[in-house]
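Hey all, sorry for the wall of text incoming. These are the two entities for the joint prediction.
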Amino acid sequence: MWSLLKKNDDECGKLRDLLEDSAAGLPAATRMEELSEAWPAAQRNHLATCGRCQEAAQDLLATREIFKGVGSATGMVRPWFSTRVVAAIAARERELTEAASTWLAVPKFASRLALASAALLLLTSTWLYEKPLPAPNQQAVSLAAQESLFESSPPANLDDVLVPVQENNP
Amino acid sequence: MPPAVAAAQGHGSKAGAAAHDRELVRRAQREDKEAFEELVRRHQHRVFAVAGGILRRREDVEDIAQQVFVKAYFSLKRFDQRAAFSTWLYKITVNECWDLLRKKKVRPLVYESDLSEEQARQVITAGDKENPGPDASEKMEARERVEQLLEGLDERDRLMLILKEVDGFSIEEIAEVLNLNGNTVKVRLFRARRRVVSRAKKRVD
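and here's what came out:
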């Protein structure tokens, strides 16, 4: 039983291969008979008796009919497409070269850049170290001292202030 | 002509094309831009077909196709030619398209009503010179109908059907594009056809 089923499946497989090949070779065929015309008798008999294979053949022809008249995207290719691709490649190459040359310049100038930075650092720190301190403004100093006198030494005991006030105004 | 002879002839020319591709790739790897431009010309139609099967919007398809070739050029030095150049290129195309869809979160196939009148006319009349057939309005109708029938289908199945029925890819080529086994493609194609046909029948009923 199993071997019979397997044999049947193999035959169906072979017939479908044949069907595909015939359909590819006969793009204008619309009937099953046209497709199977050149087939060996055994395959034609199989097609006549096998419902699944008949269905497959009918589906193939029906799909072909459904797709009839649909334009292919290959018609979208414009004549200058290959030129456009080559131009895009050249533009991309230029971009890559420019980016690479920018980064190549960094190691080239790295030693000089390091020397210049070190010299600048040395000069700045020396200048800061040697810079004379600005002379303090006398008026500002005295004002600051007064402010600090009032702010920093409030009366320790408020009673000390209140008692003389009371004495003056009995 | 017997199928076997035709297949052998096809194989022969395919092998020749692959050998020519390999030579062009070698030259392009040495930064020969003319060789790469030749590769673009040889594969642009197929790349457009694959991208168009997933995206449909003309602008997206064109941009992605350009992006695919630019990416391919800059990755070419790492390409060891163990696989065919076309296989490698289709994989890049599929990945770029799905990346774009993930980023944009747009519907993979847009209806004509989503396009401007001009865009729709461009899409519909694309390829008219090569395949004179139904006029623009018939094509528009056909596309509208097909896209509605494809709605709800798995992304891969939808792409398989478009590549097979619209762009005439072979099973091997579809397997190459989607990185699947040929038998898997056949089985999935039959199932996808079944679904589309039954949906069409339901609509008629």
